[in-house]
Amino acid sequence: MLQETPRKLIDESGIRLDGRGLNELRPIKIEVGVLSNADGSAYIEQGKSKILAAVYGPKEVHPKHLALPDRALLRCRYHMAPFSVEERKSPAPSRREMELSKVIREALEPSVFVEYYPRTSIDLFIEVLQADGGTRCSGITVASLALADAGIPMRDLVAACAAGKVEGRLALDLTDLEDKGGEADVPLAWMPNLNAVTLLQMDGMLTMEEFEHVVNLALQGCKQIYQLQKETLKAKYVTVKEAVEE
Amino acid sequence: MSSIMVSRVKQKQIAQLISSGKRLDGRGLTDYREVQLEDGVIERAEGSARVRLGKTEVMVGIKIEVGEPFPDVPNEGVLTVNAELVPLASPTFEPGPPDENSIELARVVDRGIRESKAVALEKLCVEPGKKVFIVFVDIYVLNHDGNLIDASAIASLAALLNTKMFNYEVKEGEVKIKPGYTSLPVRNYPMAVTFAKISDKLVVDPWLEEEQVMDARLTVTVEKDGKVCAVQKGGYGYFTMQQVLEAAKIAREKAEELRKLVVKG
């Protein structure tokens, strides 16, 4: 499945390799309630990235001593399948995956009313089946839907999207090639109702002005993704409601 | 990591003071604690530094070895950053393999150095595709009193700046050490500036008890020309967009201040 590295990632008129404009998201397909064992689950395809998320809980905490007296323990595991990337990834958790598990948990926890379920755990699993850039953001988007699907009370959905700088141009939702060949990548997670940035990272180099633009660009992406999230949930529960009424 | 207990009264006091623009230890909201820097503290290491940021204390040692390059960059040396939260530094640190806190700490410091291209890795190639120098940056936290990221970033940069590379020659494919040293090629100076959000205000360089009270944490790393080269949000709370942009602006000024302490001349 080797791809050749092309010479230019963006052509003169601002069209990217996959035919997108600079401010365009990749095609996104989301489903909720895809796994029968989980209390909540969701699946997302964003371009070539394919990610599954499942929520178990609130449930009894194992091991017990980790239980918190005043709130639920939210745990998160971001993990990539060995076949999800070009060169096989060892299934053991890497340092990158451990860091991402932490920041994803911290991106989602502000949205959950953890204080409603003291002494329990809410376990969140994100499995990247195929990675093509922006997997932490797609992971947050899909995990937030899985939490909603599990019926866990939330302040808002969390939508996440990255923007960055590629060949001197600021662009939304970078693919893996654009990320690797680009100058900067800024993933951002956002809760619109609270105007809350719950995840923000950056690597690369940007001037202050560029940084401000990129952050705003990512925010625009989050807004579009938030709409998709809401539509997906509505579509699912409208059909459930109809089925119940019949 | 279990947390340090801060009494409710003190938590409230810290938060209330900050909402009126003051801090319990008398600092202004954007003031750093006193920074003390010593370099060359470990003779066995190729480079080293010890930083005190208030009561927070971090030591960094640099070791250089010969090893294989990554296949995708066969002409470049390798930089690895590792952090140890050693149990003597805090009652909350446990012995054992690195947990997510130490991994995050190392990776945030790493990102600043790597993305600003501070170490000229292309000059650390011995034989393309076969032998390069590997620069190990080992962060050793000795006393935890908050803001480990900034203290570690300062110490790492200071240690890199006083790192001496042994002279060498290549004989029959083997690297032989010759007498004498040259300094490690360092061409950029990234400085991490960390904010805590408390009472909906941004506070620079939180100490431990402020970290227990804070809603969220934001680190902005700025390189020598004022460009942002790494950002990391942490903690369970959130920032507004306005706060993010404000933090970036403050970080630029603060990074400049810190840089003067580390980079002399």
Please summarize what this structure is.
The complex is a heterodimer of chains A (246) and B (265). Chain A is an alpha+beta fold.
Name the descriptors.
heterodimer, A: 246 residues, Ribosomal Protein S5, domain 2, 4 helices, 9 strands, B: 265 residues, 4-stranded antiparallel β-sheet
Level-2 CATH architecture of chain A: 2-Layer Sandwich
**What is the name of the CATH class of chain A?**
Alpha Beta
Classify the oligomer: heterodimer
CATH topology of chain A: Ribosomal Protein S5, domain 2
How many individual helices of chain A?
4
Mean pLDDT of chain B: 94
Indicate the CATH architecture of chain B: 2-Layer Sandwich
Unreliable spans of chain B are: none
Give the overall shape of chain B, derived from the CA principal axes. Answer: elongated
- Rg of chain A computed from alpha carbons, rounded to a whole number of angstroms: 18 Å
Structural class from helices and strands of chain A?
alpha+beta
Proportion of residues in extended strands of chain B: 25-35%
Q: Describe the biggest sheet of chain B? A: 6 strands, mixed
Label the overall shape of chain A. globular
CATH superfamily of chain B: GHMP Kinase, N-terminal domain
Helix-strand string of chain A: EEEEHEHEEHEEH
Q: How many discrete structural domains of chain B?
A: 1
CATH fold-level name of chain B: Ribosomal Protein S5, domain 2
Can you tell me about this structure?
The complex is a heterodimer of chains A (246) and B (265). Chain A is 30% helix and 30% strand. Chain A has 246 residues and is of the alpha+beta class. Chain A has a single domain, classed as Ribosomal Protein S5, domain 2 (2-Layer Sandwich). In chain A, the strands form two sheets. Chain A has a five-stranded mixed sheet. In chain A, strand 1 and strand 2 form a beta hairpin. Chain A is globular. The mean pLDDT of chain A is 95. Chain B has 265 residues and is α+β, with helices and mostly antiparallel strands. Chain B has a single domain (27-262), classed as GHMP Kinase, N-terminal domain (Ribosomal Protein S5, domain 2), CATH 3.30.230. Chain B has helices at 8-19, 100-115, 148-161, 208-213, 241-262, and strands spanning 35-39, 47-53, 56-67, 78-85, 125-127, 131-143, 164-171, 174-183, 191-198, 201-204, 216-222, 228-234. In chain B, the strands form three sheets. In chain B, strands 1, 2, 3, 4, 5 and 6 form a six-stranded mixed sheet that branches. In chain B, helix 2 packs across helix 3. The interface between A and B is medium-sized, with 34 and 36 residues.
